[in-house]
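Subject: sequence -> structure tokens, single chain

Hey, anyone have a minute? Need the predicted structure for the following. Not urgent.
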Amino acid sequence: MPRWNTIIMVIILASQSMAQVRVESTKPRNGEKNVSPSLNRIVVKFSGPVRTDSYSFVVAGKGETPEITGDPRFQGDRVCILPVKLKPNTTYSIGINSKRRKGFVGKDGVPVTPYVLTFQTGVGKAKKKPRKSKRTGAAEKPSSPSRQTRGTQGGKVAAPSSATVFHLYFDKTEGAFWVLVPHGWKVSGGTVRQLFQPARFNLEVVHPSGWAGYRFIPTPYYMEPNEFYPMGAMDNNGNVYLPLMPPEQYLTQIVVPWLYKNGQAKVEDSSSLPEVAQSFSNFSRLVEQQTGIQVRFAAAQVRLSVNEGRAQFIHRLVAIQRSLSVMGKVVWETLLIQIRLRADKKKQLEPILMTSLGSFEINPRWAAALNQAEAVRGAQAMRYQEEIIQIHERMMQNRAAVNDAVAHSIALELGGQAEYTDPETGETRTLLSGYQYTWTDGNGNFFQSNSPDFDPNKPEIQEKFGLNGHFRIMKRK
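Reply:
Had a minute. Here:
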């Protein structure tokens, strides 16, 4: 009898093994060499249908892990696409599921068989040699990629002056956030950490001529003053001792004197931002349920008139205040944003500036891990890593709605904007409303134009704006 039980068990295990979904193919292929470093996505095709509400791309293999530039997305229930950025002459490896991470799951609930993809990139495209002038024989300077030409030459469509391109920028320091950056604008900074202090944003996005921009300014932890540390004191850990105050008071009495010391800034008005605070509260609620940390949010803004040299600028300071109780004491911090806009360029640049700022999204997985670390600092019980993953998966299911609320509320006076939907993925983005045609490649690049002939799939257009891949027209809501 035991012998029959053994045979039956072997048959059951064999049938389960045959039914288990596995990786059928990948692009690039496993072991492929000389892969183009301009490839911006990894495509994984499974042997059977999988659930599209979870995934697991993990560090595995001997190669370098590709830089991930966005969230994975599914095409149907058998194909998953991972946006990446590759370097030339590099061996890459990435795992699809592992023994512990089993996010890719078949429709029957059985995890996909773990798989490691390894490939190697080539040297990429060689730089074009400068063309010699027929008149002098000297090498001509290449034309600037930002210069716009009018008319049509040689059958090529020239770029009209009314075109805007946004690229998705993914935080290169800790993967804490992503944001749409207008083509040609400069990006610096990212996420910073100091000893005994949590991670903070130190990001700046600036117009190439300095006419507009915004930056996230890192601020310290604030704690209640006591007999050892009076108001305004700083301890060895970098904490500043200030009582909890309304964000409007914090901006006018603390931030403005700190940032504008030359007296050339005039406060025009200030106001609270309850919708911004509510948006951040919604974002934080899922994490609070898991860690037990009760976090409160408040937000406010101050508008200033500032003389920068001979030019007049409009500045706006936004503070999102986050407070919590740690061992019976109130600890608070702020997300501080400074927005600059040259007054005579307001009509031209404000919609672009606010579209970029409004697209800023915090990576929910990073936020979950950050709150988990704060639970430890607050002497609360630490959860297992699997629980963080579960938080991430639940937050990802609600990320679209939450981030949409944050994006709409954090960007002030979002005039001249509209929502556009990718017909292939269903992804919705808030972009400029003044264009008749809006395109996307599904990898975080968005192209807007009023010309029906201005097709971003044309090689000359892609070269001009640093684009690649296939673009499709988005639908305006």
